[in-house]
Amino acid sequence: MTTSLVTPGTKVGNHPDQTAGPGTAVHGDELIATVLGHVHTVDGAVSVEALNHVLDIKVGDVVIGIVDKVNEKNAELVITSVEGQNLPPVANQLRAQLRVTDIVDRYLHQVSDALRRRDVCRAVVTAASPVLRVDMRNDPASGVLHALCHHCGSTMVPDKEGDWNMHCPTCDERTFRALGDGYGMGDGHASLNGAGKRWTGATEAHFSKGPAARASFLAEDVREDGRPREYPRFDTGGGGGGQRRQRSAPGCRLFIGGLDRGVDTDKLRELFSAHGDMTDCVVMTDDSGTSRGFGFVTYGDKAHADAAIAALDGKRINGRRIGVRDADQKRERGERKPQPKGTKLYVGNLSFDTGVDALKSLVAEHANVVGADLVMDNGRSKGFGFVFIAEDADAAKVVEAINGTEVDGRKIRADIAKQGGGKRGGGGGQRSSREERAKREEAEGGGGRRRRGPKRS
């Protein structure tokens, strides 16, 4: 049976009632066309006769491709041609995968040690289905045929110096490529790869620097022609590669912390624009574009910045309290207050409404209190704090007296704090940081889900 013309992606049959022939592929319980052409069904087998014939790449074919993706342990090539053939490949064979172990006969920490994006390569097909895979290691003619300097964009030339076999005549950059014999229409360049040799100590030190040593700054079709580079300035930039931001007047730039991950730059701008004209606004993000939970807003007038701090510091946005402060001032928690002399007691599982005075009064019944401090976060108690009692007081007895006492509806936990922020054994048990203990106690007493630990025998 022959039907009218179909395009790639058109349903041409049902699987498994019918089997896939040339020009078709199985997609779930359907057979779909992979080429432009006419459908034929013979004895339950469905095929599509190509209107414009395409090439079906097979194992052993030699292909020419351009490196499009470079991952740590594999690369992806866009196939441009097959040697000896004048037909384009089928749609599912336009891309090929190349593993790091199939590039060159030397140990590579990662693909970028021997390949870069936009390198033109020759490779031999080792698998045609279900994924096209290629190899450059076992054939001297296979390898990089053309490469650009990843700093300035000039064409690299073969030039052996130590482990490096490529040199940029424009910026003097030296690097390594897994060269094929015919690089740049030349001959015998595969011998510059140093097959089977170990890297020297200097090269290993270069590789050990990690991604910084392999950084690639080359944009599409950029060439270094000696003119000064100009970079656009974006108010949503993440902090690298662009023009340095203009320094704002003192008190005009604000730091905003505690942001919900759903608050982006546009939402931050909408929130802060009500308090004056802004010259800059940005929510900082990581490499994947996910918010890092903080941002910056710059006003043209300090009065507008002060008004924003007064109105928005501690305000709840998407259920979280944000902190707004002058970005140029030193953080208060960075300047440590001198601690009172005396024995330091840890008091946890406190209500968020319990203040310092209540904390002092609790301990004052049993010892002379010389100081007290609640640990705060954006102006709100974190549910624990510290009390300092006179050195001549019996700290163990004080802990025994107040441990388990009910304060503001919660049974508190007390212990002798260890210098450096930990605690030691008035209550006995395993040592942990005060932060970890506070989180655990908050979950146990504050209605949160208690995290289960390992079963004890």
Shape: elongated
> What's the helix count?
6
Indicate the structural class. Answer: mainly beta
| Mean pLDDT over the full residue set | 81
Beta fraction: 25-35%
Give the gist of this structure.
This protein is mainly beta and 457 residues long. It has helices spanning 201-207, 265-272, 302-312, 356-364, 395-402, 434-445, and strands at residues 2-6, 11-14, 19-20, 24-27, 30-33, 37-42, 45-50, 62-70, 74-82, 95-99, 120-127, 133-135, 143-146, 157-161, 164-167, 174-175, 253-257, 278-285, 291-299, 316-317, 320-321, 323-326, 343-348, 369-377, 380-389, 406-407, 410-411, 413-417, 423-424. Helix content is 12%, strand content 32%.
Topology:
Layout: E1 2-6, E2 11-14, E3 19-20, E4 24-27, E5 30-33, E6 37-42, E7 45-50, E8 62-70, E9 74-82, E10 95-99, E11 120-127, E12 133-135, E13 143-146, E14 157-161, E15 164-167, E16 174-175, H1 201-207, E17 253-257, H2 265-272, E18 278-285, E19 291-299, H3 302-312, E20 316-317, E21 320-321, E22 323-326, E23 343-348, H4 356-364, E24 369-377, E25 380-389, H5 395-402, E26 406-407, E27 410-411, E28 413-417, E29 423-424, H6 434-445
Defining key terms:
single chain, 457 residues, mainly beta, six-stranded antiparallel β-sheet, five-stranded antiparallel β-sheet, elongated
